[in-house]
């Protein structure tokens, strides 16, 4: 009897948990896709586009919940209060006005487009990239080929006709870490929701009011998926045209692949890029909410097998990775992007020795990669590569370096002892990156310092380089 009473009491309590709506405390407008989580549990739900949500039986009467959404202060509520008051208010967060101050100085600006502007082929469907579960987020790195800061105006996202084109998704913008190519601080301050209509179309999101500055290393555009109200859990088979390598004829042959599509929201367009160019571009959040990148470095130059049984050697040029079709419109100061930087070293070093650039072996997309490439190149005895592609210097400095090289082809440019010293100094400096300070000198020149050690570095055409006459590298 006692057990029956407890059951009846629980059913009575749960029957009081109905549909609630989250609204803006000032405008009284619905807050779309807010997160509702219990303090004592990992359990959580997401409100819909109109701010409605339902607490299920896992939320107890004495539990407190946290409601959060970008652009709003987190709200703490008791479940009993939620039951009594069907409308739940969130307070908009106050933006730091000093961050959006615009200088009064007159300056001419020019808009440039960064990212992927091509429409994807209908037959290509990298499903692991272009769709996601409810609340899942994936991000794409947009490099800044002009290497000067600019202001984000629009984000353009290609939505295909697969899945549910009219399903909503949320936009996130992240700064690129100064030292590594990875998402850093989130720059969006508002709850920006977008959707397409029928699909196979570019969706443009106006970002002017966010006053976001795109840095020298570019930025990351994140897409957070939400299920369509019309969706049903499905497992559809999609047939795509593809190609495999015919070892006997040394050519590609047409093949039909079957792919499994999962998800209940929008499906973005995506293209395949060679891994040499797509590395570090695709990121997604894990169960802890942290972003991670799917890297294929460990399987490069290993043997792989096609579905038909043929084998091939994976390389950065025959391995492909899906990248979402996202591009951004950025407003740059016109006089800054018109500047060209001519490196006097290229002409002279090409006469000395013809060395081709290899950005996969020696990447320079960020400061961390630059120092890792310097260390690796010195260890591999690629001294000319270091001077030609990883370094930058004035004309008189180049002449001094060249004068120190011997004319005999069989002799090393620098001794093993000197190389060991350089590698040791660079490795020691790199190990202190957590406490490093990056100081901007002008649009392209920076000073990297730790304690009393200083390196002069430059970014040009999206690549970082170092002055070899900086502290301790060439002593």
Describe what this molecule looks like in 3D.
18% of the residues lie in helices and 34% in strands. It has 475 residues and is an alpha+beta fold. Strands 9, 11, 12, 13, 16, 21 and 22 form a seven-stranded antiparallel β-sheet that branches. Strands 8, 10, 14, 15, 19 and 26 form a six-stranded antiparallel β-sheet that branches. A four-stranded antiparallel β-sheet has the order 3-2-5-6. A hairpin with a 2-residue loop joins strand 29 and strand 30 (463-466). The longest helix has 15 residues, at 416-430. It starts with a helix and ends in a 9-residue tail after the last strand. InterPro entries: CarboxyPept-like_regulatory. This is Carboxypeptidase-like regulatory domain-containing protein. Pfam families: CarbopepD_reg_2.
Fold blueprint:
Layout: H1 2-15, E1 19-24, E2 35-38, E3 44-46, E4 52-54, E5 64-68, E6 75-78, H2 79-84, E7 87-90, E8 109-115, H3 127-130, E9 137-142, E10 150-163, E11 169-176, E12 183-186, E13 193-194, E14 201-206, E15 213-214, E16 219-225, E17 236-246, E18 251-261, E19 266-268, E20 270-274, H4 275-278, E21 282-285, E22 291-293, E23 303-305, E24 311-313, E25 320-324, E26 326-333, H5 334-337, H6 345-352, H7 367-379, H8 383-390, H9 395-404, H10 416-430, E27 437-440, E28 445-450, E29 453-460, E30 463-466
Parallel strand pairs: 1-7
Antiparallel strand pairs: 1-4, 2-3, 2-5, 5-6, 8-26, 9-16, 9-21, 10-14, 10-15, 10-19, 10-26, 11-12, 11-13, 11-16, 17-18, 20-25, 21-22, 23-24, 27-28, 28-29, 29-30
Helix pairs in contact: 6-8, 7-8, 7-10
Pfam family, one: CarbopepD_reg_2
Protein name: Carboxypeptidase-like regulatory domain-containing protein
């Amino acid at each position: 009897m006692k057990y029956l009473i407890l059951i009846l009491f629980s059913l009575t309590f749960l029957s009081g948990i109905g549909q609630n709506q989250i609204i803006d405390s000032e405008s009284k407008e619905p807050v779309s896709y807010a997160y509702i989580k219990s303090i004592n549990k990992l359990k959580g739900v997401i409100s819909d586009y109109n701010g409605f949500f339902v607490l299920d039986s896992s939320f107890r009467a004495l539990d407190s919940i946290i409601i959060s959404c970008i652009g709003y202060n987190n709200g703490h509520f008791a479940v009993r209060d939620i039951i009594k008051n069907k409308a739940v208010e969130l307070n908009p967060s106050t933006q730091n006005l000093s961050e959006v101050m615009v200088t009064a100085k007159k300056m001419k600006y020019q808009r440039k487009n960064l990212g992927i502007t091509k429409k994807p082929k209908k037959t290509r469907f990298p499903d692991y990239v272009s769709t996601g579960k409810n609340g899942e987020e994936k991000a794409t790195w947009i490099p800044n080929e002009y290497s000067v800061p600019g202001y984000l105006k629009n984000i353009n996202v290609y939505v295909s006709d697969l899945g549910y084109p009219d399903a909503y998704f949320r936009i996130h913008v992240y700064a690129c870490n100064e030292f590594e190519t990875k998402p850093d601080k989130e720059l969006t301050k508002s709850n920006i929701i977008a959707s397409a209509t029928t699909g196979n179309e570019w969706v443009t999101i106006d970002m002017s009011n966010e006053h976001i500055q795109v840095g020298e290393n570019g930025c990351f555009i994140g897409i957070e998926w939400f299920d369509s109200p019309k969706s049903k859990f499905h497992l559809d088979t999609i047939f795509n045209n593809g190609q495999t390598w015919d070892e006997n004829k040394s050519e590609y042959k047409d093949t039909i692949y079957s792919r499994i599509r999962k998800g209940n929201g929008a499906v973005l367009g995506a293209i395949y890029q060679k891994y040499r160019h797509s590395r570090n571009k695709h990121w997604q959040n894990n169960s802890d909410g942290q972003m991670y990148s799917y890297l294929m470095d460990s399987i490069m130059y290993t043997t792989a097998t096609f579905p038909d049984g043929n084998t091939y050697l994976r390389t950065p040029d025959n391995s492909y990775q899906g990248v979402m079709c996202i591009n951004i419109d950025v407003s740059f100061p016109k006089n800054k992007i018109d500047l060209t930087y001519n490196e006097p070293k290229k002409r002279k070093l090409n006469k000395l020795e013809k060395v081709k650039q290899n950005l996969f072996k020696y990447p320079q997309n960020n400061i961390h990669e630059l120092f890792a490439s310097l260390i690796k190149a010195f260890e591999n005895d690629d001294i000319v590569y270091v001077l030609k592609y990883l370094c930058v210097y004035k004309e008189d400095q180049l002449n001094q370096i060249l004068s120190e090289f011997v004319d005999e082809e069989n002799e090393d440019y620098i001794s093993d002892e000197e190389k060991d010293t350089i590698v040791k100094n660079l490795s020691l400096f790199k190990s202190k990156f957590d406490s490093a300070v990056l100081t901007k000198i002008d649009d392209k020149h920076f000073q990297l310092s730790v304690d009393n050690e200083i390196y002069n570095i430059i970014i040009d055409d999206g690549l970082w380089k170092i002055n070899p006459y900086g502290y301790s590298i060439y002593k």
